[in-house]
């Protein structure tokens, strides 16, 4: 492993989605210079909206998946140890890299590498075109590979989840501390290395069917005029059997694997997270039909314009070399 390779891997990790583009991760080359350690960065937590650090761990999981994909693009196999040291709670993962054995078949993860830079949250209205069954199947397998269950919601479940999301968005609107915290991550004027820039914000739904998060308050400021969204959005929930740090990190890996495959297939996505942020709406998100499980994140998928890129911190700020 060379400094260039570590920088390449950290840049890929840093391109992952994160709550409010907080980028709550740090990467460090291991002392022997052979592996990469991935830490959470508590100084980048979002404590009012995410008091348990659940979204923070999901974000780091997404970064880990990107590192694995980037390593695959270098022809390396990754050994991943999640939460390897109970004495170091900030250490989320230790990754080791191996040359594949001669004659072994290369994995397909390398093909996902270009999607890391091409993937952006698209907060625009999507068309009515359905995600093909074949692709839904592929996304379910991808989530399962990382330890999460992806469910594409049927119409009645979609309407129920949209109502819960709208309810959560209304409560957030009435919560001064949450509104202020969210607003503090929006960068309308000066360019910045984190947070959400004006170009990445989207309109709100004129018909109030798709409750997009209003990042700039209620009523919103500095965002495009409202627009008509797809009447029945295509929502995928990610569910895990447990609700601990490991499940959250695995959800992030599943989210990013699914989102990269979607990107390769010209499918766009944006997260609808509000209902997961309030304990009671989160509890009600559980589908009574499919049995127990914790809903960790909701991804709206569809065809439409790509989202704008959001900035990232420079690699020198997030990577420590030996
Ligand atoms: C745990 C989590 C929750 C998120 N919640 C929302 C949300 O409620 N609404 C939204 O529009 N984007 C949400 N996002 C997307 C982030 O805002 C986005 O990933 C970040 O701003 C970086 O932009 P990018 O995805 O275009 O790279 C969430 C992302 C994560 C990982």
TrEMBL record:
**InterPro entries recorded:** Nitroreductase-like, Nitroreductase/BluB
| A GO term, aspect molecular function | oxidoreductase activity
Q: Which residues form a coiled coil?
A: none
Listed Gene3D superfamilies: NADH Oxidase
Q: What is this protein called?
A: Nitroreductase
């Amino acid at each position: 492993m060379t400094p260039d390779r570590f920088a390449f891997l950290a840049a890929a990790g840093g391109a992952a989605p994160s709550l409010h583009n907080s980028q709550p991760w740090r990467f460090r080359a291991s002392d022997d210079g052979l592996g990469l350690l991935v830490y959470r960065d508590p100084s980048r937590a979002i404590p009012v909206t995410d008091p348990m650090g659940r979204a923070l761990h999901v974000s780091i999981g997404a970064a880990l998946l990107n590192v694995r994909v980037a390593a695959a693009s270098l022809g390396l196999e990754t050994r991943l140890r999640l939460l390897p040291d109970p004495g170091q709670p900030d250490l989320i993962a230790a990754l080791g890299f191996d040359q594949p054995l001669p004659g072994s078949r290369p994995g397909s993860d390398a093909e996902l590498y270009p999607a890391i830079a091409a993937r952006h949250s698209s907060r625009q209205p999507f068309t009515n075109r359905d995600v093909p069954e074949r692709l839904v199947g592929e996304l379910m397998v991808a989530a399962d590979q990382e330890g999460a269950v992806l469910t594409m919601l049927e119409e009645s479940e979609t309407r129920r989840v949209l109502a819960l999301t709208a309810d959560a968005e209304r409560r957030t609107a009435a919560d001064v501390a949450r509104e202020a915290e969210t607003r503090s991550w929006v960068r309308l004027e000066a360019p910045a290395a984190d947070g959400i820039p004006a170009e990445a914000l989207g309109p709100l739904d004129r018909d109030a069917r798709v409750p997009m998060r209003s990042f700039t308050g209620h009523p919103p400021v500095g965002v495009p005029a409202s627009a008509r969204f797809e009447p029945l959005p295509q929502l995928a929930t990610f569910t895990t059997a447990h609700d601990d740090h490991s499940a959250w990190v695995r959800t992030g890996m599943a989210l990013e694997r699914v989102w990269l495959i979607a990107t390769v297939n010209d499918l766009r996505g944006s997260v609808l997270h509000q209902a997961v942020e309030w304990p009671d709406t989160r509890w009600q998100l559980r589908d009574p039909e499919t049995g127990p499980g914790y809903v960790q994140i909701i991804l709206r998928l569809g065809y439409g314009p790509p989202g704008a890129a959001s900035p990232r911190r420079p690699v020198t700020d997030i990577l420590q070399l030996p």
